[in-house]
UniProtKB/TrEMBL annotation:
Organism: Oceanithermus profundus (strain DSM 14977 / NBRC 100410 / VKM B-2274 / 506)
Domain Gcp-like: 24-296
Subcellular location: Cytoplasm
Alphabetical list of InterPro entries matching this protein: ATPase_NBD, Gcp-like_dom, KAE1/TsaD, TsaD
EC number: 2.3.1.234
Entry protein name: tRNA N6-adenosine threonylcarbamoyltransferase
UniProt superkingdom: Bacteria
Residues engaged in binding substrate: 132-136, 165, 178, 182, 266
Length: 326
């Protein structure tokens, strides 16, 4: 089965091809430079840019895989959550292509995409825990069966990736902040600056990262070295994610855990996860941040389980909690 996956929920255009469960091509056109001068993603600019590059990116993906449009068995796109304009561009394109080729169309939940991206190389079966740590989410779910997501906890303010981005900005680093913080932290002492782990000792599985950003500003103004601030922030951010995950694993008895989303690229996080002794599943390189292959993988697996296509009348869902039917 050859599946085309399209991801346009935010500022990256992703096109992926998955054949028989294996990623063949995964192309991402980043809009980071386009939005850089505005200090954030401008939805209208993002929509227009997606519309401009999508067709060429799909053509290139098919070309690199040596396949023709006719060879596609399924066409999938992200349906939500995300920015409505950008979502509509990808959805409209995918529906049009599916319609013209007379192939099933599948609208995919963005977080289900991140989840399946993390399972690209080792497909596993529920039950498991999944922690999505990305630019917009820090959400911990218990998955008892496919499609059944029980939210155990979530961030009460900033997402983990957002915190990396904001602390990076505080330190005068570039965007996205995650890789920049990780690089600078390697030169710092993680214990030189007295950051404390947010929410430690609290019941439940919620997270909070906005206090770390405020603390980083204060430590910077007190004259601490940027590398020490980066290392200290990364230490407690990782401790919060891994500590909460470990506690949830203990309480639920689920030792199989999946960690997905852009923050899953972080090597300090990966090292801390490896030290837990849990059965940890992480996305391979290229599948951590937004991409089309993860959308194709999620679609391929739903199709294999349920043989269920979506109607061409489904619309974008900018606000769409995982596990809630629309
Ligand atoms: P969402 O999926 O919630 O809609 P998003 O798609 O914007 O949000 P992703 O693309 O999954 O988020 O991840 C981007 C985030 O991951 C950014 O905040 C970025 O700073 C962070 N990130 C990327 N690499 C690293 C890293 N090495 N360490 C920490 N964070 C990282
Ligand atoms: Fe994402």
């Amino acid at each position: 089965v050859l599946v085309l996956g399209i991801e346009t929920s935010c500022d990256d255009t992703g096109v992926g091809l998955v054949q028989d469960g294996r990623v063949r091509v995964n192309l991402v056109a980043s809009q980071t430079l386009l939005h850089a001068e505005y200090g954030g993603v401008v939805p209208e600019l993002a929509s227009r840019e997606h519309a401009q590059v999508l067709d060429r990116l799909v053509a290139r993906a098919l070309d690199e895989a040596g396949v023709r449009p006719r060879d596609l068995d399924l066409v999938a796109a992200t349906r939500g959550p995300g920015l409505v304009g950008p979502l509509l561009v990808g959805l409209g394109y995918a529906k049009g292509l599916a319609w013209s080729l007379e192939r099933p169309f599948l609208g995919v939940h963005h977080l289900e995409g991140h989840l399946h991206g993390a399972l690209a190389e080792a497909p596993v079966e529920p039950p498991f825990l999944v922690l999505i740590a990305s630019g917009g989410h820090t959400h911990l779910y218990r998955v008892e069966a496919w499609g059944r997501y029980e939210l155990l906890g979530a961030t009460r303010d900033d997402a983990a990736g957002e915190a990396f981005d904001k602390v990076a900005r505080t330190l005068g680093l570039g965007y996205p902040g995650g890789p920049e913080i990780e690089r600078l932290a390697a030169a710092g002492d993680p214990h030189a600056v007295p950051f404390s782990v947010p929410m430690r000792g609290r019941a439940g599985y919620d997270f909070s990262f906005s206090g770390l950003k405020t603390a980083a500003v204060r430590f910077r103004d007190e004259g601490h070295a940027p590398a020490d601030i980066a290392a200290g922030f990364q230490r407690v951010a990782v401790a919060s994610l891994v500590g909460t995950l470990e506690r949830a694993a203990q309480d639920t008895g689920l030792r199989r855990v999946v960690v997905a989303g852009g923050v899953a690229a972080n090597r300090a996080l990966r090292a801390a996860l490896a030290a837990t002794g849990l059965e940890v599943h992480l996305p391979p390189p290229g599948l951590t941040s937004d991409n089309g292959a993860m959308i194709a993988l999620a679609a391929a697996r739903r199709w294999a389980r349920e043989r269920r296509a979506d109607s061409l009348t489904v619309s974008a869902e900018p606000y769409w909690p995982l596990g809630e039917a629309v």
